[in-house]
Design a protein that fits this description.
By secondary structure, the chain is of the alpha+beta class. It has helices at 8-60, 66-73, 96-109, 128-133, 175-215, 228-275, 280-308, 318-331, 350-368, 422-432, and strands spanning 78-83, 117-123, 146-153, 159-164, 314-317, 336-339, 345-348, 371-377, 381-387, 436-441, 447-454. Strands 6-8-9-11-10 form a five-stranded mixed β-sheet. The longest helix is centred in the first third of the chain and has 53 residues, at 8-60. The radius of gyration is 48 Å and the shape is rod-shaped.
Amino acid sequence: MRILPDSIRTRTILVLLIGLTVSHLGSTLIYSSDRGQALTAANEHMFADKMATLARLMDMSPPASRQQVAEAISSPSLQISWGANDSVPPIHVEHEAFGLLQDSLRPHFGELGLSRLHVVVSDAPRSGVASILGAAHLLHSFTIDRQLKVSVSLQDASWVNFSLTIPGLVSRWSLNALLSTLVMVGATVVISAWATGWITAPLAAFAAAAERLGMDVSAPPLAEDGSREVRAAARAFNQMQERIRHFLDDRLQMLAAISHDLRTPITRLRLRTEQLPIDPVYQDKMLSDLDEMEQMVAANINFARDESSAEPSRPIDLAALLEAICDEAADIGKDAEFDWNSRLLYRGRALAIKRLFSNLVENALRYGERARVRASRGDDMIEVVVEDDGPGIPNDELDSVFKPFYRLDRSRNLRTGGVGLGLANARTIARAHGGDVTLENRKEGGLRAIVRLPCNRDTVTGGEG
């Protein structure tokens, strides 16, 4: 199964979406980390100053009311007590918290050493505020499951004890962060869809122009607009199309000129052959060869004239066209039938399409004595089948008969007519319209010619016949 999308536009959108989303999430993570560090540092100083202020308040209060003051200013996250003894053992922990507390207490109590300032970190109880707040930073490396305990000696040698639990920071993946990510994803999809459509539009135009060139070398040139690179590519494409058109025109003109110039010597040879005093049998053979040469020359001239004509494409009713071809054959006593009962519209060059199917019907009548024509239409293809009851063609020569002037010795000769350009012209016309012509032998005998033409926007049909 294909994992990646198939179009350049979708792949570009996917790359932009993934890249911008990853970069957005990474930048959000970095921003949140920086913000968390800044808030943590601010909290450190705030709580250190708060402890210093409360310790100063306790020192200024009368000893008899200090316990009441401690109980009054305590909170769930900061428990305060006062007594003659410290509640924190004199264990110094090398941490920034000790230095911060020293700096905050110094203006009120002077320089405090290990004998008057005790700081310890211990596990916080798994209940109350600690269990609700979850993981968060406390004084750089402490988390909510840790507790900071501090004992400070007052001026009268009594102790005020603090038990501090700092609430954690808000999660960096807040609702606003998720909404920001969703807005970024939506904006990326919209903007990249517009941008990639604008960028890949020239590629679609090139593809359409190349397909159009394959069907009509005289198609209008590609518009030379857009960015500098697109204009250069369009200009090169138009120059290539112009060179191809000139090349084909030169070859067709040369073919027509050579064929036209051969008519005069062929006519002179015919007159001289008729006047030669030779055996009538040999004379007839020579005249027959000259007739064949004249037919080949005429076929070349007709082919060059038809190919050089700039016939415009227009909507045509294939059903009416095929029915008219079969009716014309039936009017001269041929066995030709068309099986269809509704319209079958197709956009193409009417005269060329008529020549395509006339050649196939004519071949079926000449070599198979009857022609049965039927049509069908799929979602993206119109198929026309011409069958006959003739001897068929050897399987190894089914493709060779499309070569110009190629004839099978058993049936493709002047006695049955034709110089070998009918099928070559038919395939050329079909491929010029983006389709093709193939041959296959029928199991019950005879030959089947299948013409497939791509549907276009002007192709509509009624019901199947």
